[in-house]
Structures are given as structure tokens and as C-alpha cells.
């Protein structure tokens, strides 16, 4: 089966709206409390009606689910809780028939400890070829009782685990996610084959998990604060890997989006050179507080860093790892920082929702592609998960200080009156849903003119029909302090008021869309955005 719409000149990804599905929580087709591919297939019309161009699935492969599927045991099999490979193929074809492309998630930094390679490594002796695909080392200290180095974890906690014969293995995440050794040819070959396996099945793109972490300093030297290069982040050899991946993707007309968390703009842009990744997530935008100056600076910096390599920017407000947008924007600190997540942070959801609506219009008017995380179109807030129901390892590894990421992974509400709000034929999904989510259900919002769903649907419809939106240039317009105002081609204006008083709108012919009601005198209230025809 060839990739649908595949052609090298087809630059759909330069301004696509890509919807992220977390399969465990999207829709449950078999009623066992866990989302699955049958559920996704049944709900594909929602995505088509919303008007998205592509869907990115977080990992759907066979996995013990220690880290929500980011612990992959077999890349060529769908987890039985989600369905079968045959269903995945059908899903890809059905989505294509609705004009929706499929992007999958590849996790090259590590595998599950249940992956055949790691089991073979554990069953083999120190120094064996099976262990060379991972980072096994003797410990330090008189009896090897200390870990081989002092590397900090990407989750809190240890990065080395000792096995019974005394060796240690490296895992930047949980002990159930051993890091692969990217200096080993098997590791490279296997990933290239996995890419082909999925491209052959019609997948249009790949999201690369932890894309800047794969290559390790060969000496596994200790981490020294402030000394470059970092022993495991952004090592130069990564670019060799991505060039070889790009050549494979080009054969199929497929695209990459990298999960690259790097504050340094110049280093970040290297991943986007024309023979490397097509795009990477814009985390500087995601983490930026709701402040006009800082947003404007972030937008300018983003466009400036992408321009020299000719790559389109991406705009992301949330995903399965971070606090949901309406919650974050309703807090005193409207930025995002993993290290600052705490239980019980005071939140004004009405304020956060107003801002999230304005942010939606801002984001969808910027040049480049946009990622939407499932439930963002419903304005779902971060849910409070009772500690005894939390499953995310970030919570456990922080000793219960960090609430973890389950609050943004709660099963979606589809039907206000059905058990589990129509998520599936169960009253007890894998994570509990808040008691007041009936009003957030898709069926309620679909016909409600003021709902978040209606706003997103309308914005996506206009984005498709307005040639000025999507890829292209942006020009800032004069505006009052605290107001962002920019023009796109074809006389389209986006104005966002982040100040604490109403703003006068620039002269315009027509109001195309507003994130909330305007004042009776036509002024733009605070935390409100509009699209205008100039
Ligand atoms: C990425 C994923 C996150 C996962 C981690 C380890 O950051 O987005 O969910 O826990 O990688 O694979």
C-alpha cells in the first residue's frame, strides 16, 4: 500500500492542523475501560468534522504501559488492549478516505525492558554482544556498588539500575525503559526497518520521541553543569542519524516532527536543515506565559530561527505531558515548567478558558503548522486524579511531589448522558473522569454556538478557506501596549488583547471570528482575540 497523497512536492505539512490522539483515552470500543483503535475508528467522523489534516497517535505498540506506551516491547505489533495490526491498517485507510493523514510515534531512545533485545541482554553475560545494544557498565566504588556516572534523569530519580550479576544499565527515564546504544549498527538498522514497516502501511509521518537524547558521550563522562556539550543532550552525531532517516522518509513522501526540547535557537534549527527533520515541536511557545511582550518575542524568535533553514514553525499549546491549556492560563504562573507542577495550585478556570479561546485564534493565525491535543477542542481542564488512581511514573519517581501527567490524560467525554460520558460502555474508565464533565461532552458542545468546539470548528474552517492563513509571512501592526496585532496575506488581521483594559480594534471591513463577545462600543475586551478582514 502506498502512502496516501504521497508526493515529494506535496507540502501539506507546512501548515497542517495535526490532532494528537492519546489512544488509551480517546474512545473505548470494547467497553473495557481503555481506549482502543475500534474506538478511534468509530469516532473518526469527529476529526473530519473538526477539520484537521492529520492525526498523530502516541505509541500504540505492544507495551507493558509503564510509561503510557513509551515503553515499547514490539514496534511491529499493536498492543492487544488497543487492537491489532489489521485494525491499524484499516484505520489508516479509513482516515485517508476522510482526508486525514496518520502520523505515528517512534521512541528511538529506549525500549521496554520486555523488548526481546533487553530480555536477551539480561539473559546474557557481561561483555556479551546482546548487552552491547544497551549501555551496560560495571559500577564505580570498591565493589561496583555505585552507578557508573552521575547523569540526571529526565524524570526524577536514578538513571542506572544494577542487575544481579553486578553490572548496571542506563535508563534516562524509568528502569523499565533501558536506553539503546545508538553507536551499535543493529540499533540503527532496526529503526530504519521499523520506519519502512510503517511507511509501507501508509503512514504519512513520524513523531520522534525524545529526539535530542539518543546519542551519548561514548565515555559516559559525568555531567558538569554549564560545560558543553552535554553528555546526552544534543550530541552532534544525532544529525547523522536523522539524515539517514530523512532519505528513507523521502522515498515515501513522509514527514518527521521531532520532540526536541532545546532552548538554544541555533542548535534547535540544526535539526531542521533541509536534509534532516521537516519540523519540530515549538516548546518555547508552549511554555511561554500569557503575556503580550513575551509571546511576541517568542513568535519573532521562532520565525527567525526557522527562516535560515527554510522550515515551517509549529505552534503547540499542550500535549499529553503538560498541564492543560485552560488550567495553565487560569493560574498566577501562566507559563509551563515540569519542575513547578504541584497539587492544589489555585486556578480560575473561567479566566483560563477565556484566554485559551483567545490563544486558539492566535495560534491558528500564525504561519506554520498547529498541533491540537485531544480535548483541547473541548476546553477540557486538567483533572484532579485521586493519588490512589495515579499511574504516571513521574508522580512516583518524584516521591509524590509532582502530580504527574494523568490529569491531562483523562478519557474524553463524548455524550453527556451516557456511562463514562460515552467514552465506552463502562462506568469506570482507566482514569476517573471529573463529575462535572457532562457539559463538556462533544454532543452538548456540537450545537452550542458559544462552545469551545464550535470556536475550533469555525476557526479551522476559516483557516482552510483563507489563503492568507497557514504558511507564509506575518507582519506586526501598530497596537496599544499589551495588544498583539498582526496581518497575514490577503488583508487578514489577528488582534489579541492581553492587556487589562478593552482595546480599540483597527479599521476593518468585516469581523470574521471572535473568541468572545465584543463590548457594546465595539472594543475588544481583555483576553479576547479576533480575526478581521482589513
Ligand atoms: C517523551 C514523551 C513522554 C515520555 C518520554 C519518555 O517526552 O512525550 O510522554 O514519557 O518521552 O519516552
Low-confidence stretches: 1-9
CATH class value of one domain: Alpha Beta
Per CATH, the architecture of one domain is: Alpha-Beta Complex
Widest sheet, order of strands: 11-10-9-5-2-1-13-12
Sheet with the most strands, sense and barrel status:
8 strands, parallel
- How many beta-strand segments? 18
Distinct ligand kinds: alpha-D-glucopyranose
Q: In terms of quaternary structure, what is this?
A: single chain
CATH fold-level assignment of one domain? Oligo-1,6-glucosidase, domain 2
CA-to-CA gap between the ends?
A: 46 Å
Shape: globular
- What gyration radius follows from the Cα positions, in whole Å? 23 Å
Structural class: alpha/beta
Range of helix content: 25-40%
CATH superfamily membership of one domain: Oligo-1,6-glucosidase, Domain 2
Estimated share of beta-strand residues:
5-15%
Secondary structure blueprint with pairings:
Elements (H helix, E strand, L loop, with lengths): L16 E5 L1 H4 L10 H14 L3 E4 L3 E2 L11 E5 L6 H13 L3 E6 L9 H8 L12 E2 L22 E3 L5 E3 L14 H16 L4 E4 L29 H15 L2 E4 L6 H6 L8 E2 L2 H5 L4 H15 L7 E3 L8 H4 L20 H17 L3 E5 L19 H5 L44 H5 L5 H14 L9 E2 L6 E6 L3 E6 L12 E5 L13 E6 L1
Parallel strand pairs: 1-2, 1-13, 2-5, 5-9, 9-10, 10-11, 12-13
Antiparallel strand pairs: 3-4, 6-8, 7-8, 14-15, 15-16, 16-18, 17-18
The structure holds alpha-D-glucopyranose.
Amino acid at each position: 500500500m502506498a502512502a496516501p497523497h504521497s508526493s515529494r512536492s506535496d507540502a501539506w505539512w507546512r501548515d497542517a492542523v495535526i490532532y494528537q490522539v492519546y489512544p488509551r483515552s480517546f474512545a473505548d470500543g470494547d467497553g473495557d475501560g481503555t481506549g482502543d483503535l475500534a474506538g478511534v475508528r468509530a469516532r473518526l467522523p469527529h476529526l473530519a468534522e473538526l477539520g484537521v489534516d492529520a492525526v498523530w497517535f502516541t505509541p500504540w505498540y505492544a507495551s507493558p504501559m509503564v510509561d503510557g506506551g513509551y515503553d515499547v516491547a514490539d514496534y511491529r505489533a499493536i498492543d492487544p488492549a488497543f487492537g491489532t495490526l489489521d485494525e491499524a491498517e484499516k484505520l489508516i485507510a479509513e482516515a485517508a478516505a476522510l482526508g486525514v493523514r496518520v502520523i505515528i510515534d517512534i521512541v528511538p531512545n529506549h525500549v521496554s525492558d520486555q523488548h526481546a533485545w533487553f530480555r536477551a541482554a539480561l539473559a546474557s553475560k557481561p561483555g556479551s554482544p546482546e548487552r552491547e545494544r544497551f549501555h551496560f557498565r560495571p559500577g564505580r566504588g570498591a565493589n561496583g556498588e555505585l552507578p557508573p556516572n552521575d547523569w540526571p534523569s529526565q524524570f526524577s530519580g536514578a538513571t542506572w539500575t544494577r542487575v544481579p550479576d553486578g553490572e548496571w544499565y542506563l535508563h534516562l527515564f524509568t528502569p523499565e525503559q533501558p536506553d539503546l546504544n545508538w553507536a551499535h549498527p543493529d540499533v540503527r538498522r532496526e529503526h530504519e526497518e521499523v520506519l519502512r514497516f510503517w511507511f509501507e502501511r501508509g503512514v504519512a509521518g513520524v513523531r520522534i520521541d525524545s529526539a535530542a537524547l539518543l546519542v551519548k558521550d561514548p565515555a559516559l563522562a559525568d555531567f558538569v553543569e554549564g560545560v558543553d556539550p552535554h553528555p546526552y543532550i544534543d550530541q552532534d552525531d544525532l544529525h547523522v542519524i536523522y539524515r539517514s532517516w530523512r532519505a528513507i522518509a523521502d522515498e515515501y513522501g513522509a514527514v518527521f516532527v521531532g520532540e526536541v526540547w532545546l532552548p538554544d535557537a541555533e542548535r534547535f534549527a540544526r535539526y531542521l536543515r533541509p536534509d534532516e527533520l521537516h519540523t519540530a515541536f515549538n516548546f518555547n511557545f508552549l511554555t511561554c506565559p500569557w503575556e503580550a511582550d513575551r509571546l511576541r518575542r517568542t513568535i519573532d524568535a521562532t520565525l527567525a530561527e526557522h527562516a535560515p533553514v527554510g522550515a515551517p514553525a509549529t505552534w503547540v499549546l499542550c500535549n499529553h505531558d503538560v498541564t492543560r491549556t485552560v488550567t495553565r492560563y487560569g493560574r498566577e504562573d501562566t507559563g509551563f515548567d515540569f519542575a513547578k507542577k504541584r497539587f492544589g495550585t489555585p486556578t480560575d478556570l473561567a479566566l483560563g478558558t477565556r484566554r485559551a479561546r483567545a490563544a486558539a485564534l492566535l495560534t491558528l493565525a500564525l504561519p506554520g503548522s498547529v498541533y491540537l491535543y485531544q480535548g483541547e477542542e473541548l476546553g477540557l481542564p486538567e483533572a484532579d486524579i485521586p493519588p490512589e488512581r495515579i499511574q504516571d511514573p513521574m508522580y512516583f519517581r518524584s516521591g509524590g511531589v509532582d502530580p504527574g501527567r494523568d490529569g491531562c490524560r483523562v478519557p474524553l467525554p463524548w455524550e453527556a448522558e451516557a456511562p463514562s460520558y460515552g467514552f465506552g460502555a463502562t462506568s469506570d474508565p482507566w482514569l476517573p473522569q471529573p463529575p462535572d464533565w457532562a457539559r463538556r461532552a462533544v454532543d452538548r458542545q456540537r450545537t452550542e454556538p458559544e462552545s469551545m468546539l464550535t470556536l475550533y470548528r469555525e476557526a479551522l474552517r476559516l483557516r482552510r478557506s483563507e489563503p492568507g492563513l497557514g504558511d507564509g509571512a506575518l507582519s506586526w501592526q501598530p497596537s496599544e501596549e499589551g495588544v498583539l496585532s498582526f496581518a497575514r496575506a490577503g488583508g487578514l488581521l489577528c488582534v489579541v488583547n492581553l492587556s487589562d483594559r478593552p482595546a480599540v480594534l483597527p479599521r476593518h471591513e468585516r469581523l470574521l471570528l471572535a473568541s468572545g463577545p465584543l463590548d457594546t462600543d465595539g472594543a475588544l475586551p481583555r483576553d479576547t482575540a479576533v480575526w478581521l478582514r482589513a
